[in-house]
Amino acid sequence: MPALRIHCTTLGQPHRNARGEIDNAVMILHGTGGSGKQFLQPQFADELYGPGQPLDIRRYWIILPDNIGHGGSSKPSDGLRMRFPAYDYGDMVEAQHRLLTEGLGIRRMRLIMGTSMGCMHSFLWGETRPGFARALMPLACEPVEIAGLNRIWRQLLVDGIRADPAWARGDYKSQPVQGLRTAASMLIVAGAAPLNLQQAFPTREAATARARAQIDDSMASLDANDLIYQVEASRTYDPWPKLEAITAPVTWINSADDFINPRNLDIPKRATARMPNARFRLIPESAETHGHGTHTWARFWKGDLADLLARTEGAVAP
User: Fold this and answer.
1) Residue 317 within a domain
2) Which domain holds residue 125?
3) Which of 143, 147, 302, 304 lies in disulfide reach of 123, CB 3.0 to 4.6 Å?
4) pLDDT tens track for 59-116
5) What is the 3-state secondary structure (H, E, C) of 153-173?
């Protein structure tokens, strides 16, 4: 590609220290299929950005990028379709780094946090550029190769799109409806929260109506090629062999009702033992939590964020 476009939204203003360096930049990274603007939703923004809140925008400069293949950034649906470069998470982190350093003039981040795919990017940041962020907050992922159930549901989603004859190897005239229906169904199941949904839709009729409405809403915003690329970008992710390189203070949060990152995996226990400054907390399941999506309901973990910022307040550059 002759050029890569990375779109971002910012809140607040950069602050410069005595050396003229920006010292209050916070980057928040979205998940698969999302965009930076998702972090302007009330359940996130109203808990974090206001006066006296953990990411008070009078104090911090908040950077919300759209990653490669998402939102307003370069993506297959711009025209290249399946000829778009086969980017992976490493490419996405490299683009984030160039945005921060070359585009915004930042030498060191106050905090990098991310949800789901952004959570995995946070681990890659800590491993590949250990001194670049004073603190890391990954939310809703595991620092291990995507395998087992996590790979299976992704593969089913991609295969469902590719199996639809209307997909036409990515050169469709209109969206491949049956393939996208399969994909949307997988996304809904992967993001489901059993107790929450049982409470909200306690009858067969209510649950059926909810399922059909979700499918309609989801399919209206999906592009088949973009989604294939977004899901397949995880194919090379595997920070597990080099976890010891993550020396920045880490607060890592998962939720107990997360289908994608099951609570009974022993990965967090083994992983935190290998990262010298890492803490892990599992949010208990309740009728109020939102499965994998609990990561964007900040009230469940904003105390952990405030604690992370407090314990890294005096961190100096290596």
Assistant:
1) no
2) 8-145+237-311
3) 143
4) 999 999 999 999 999 999 999 999 999 999 999 999 999 999 999 999 999 999 999 9
5) HHHHHHHHHHCCHHHHHHCCC
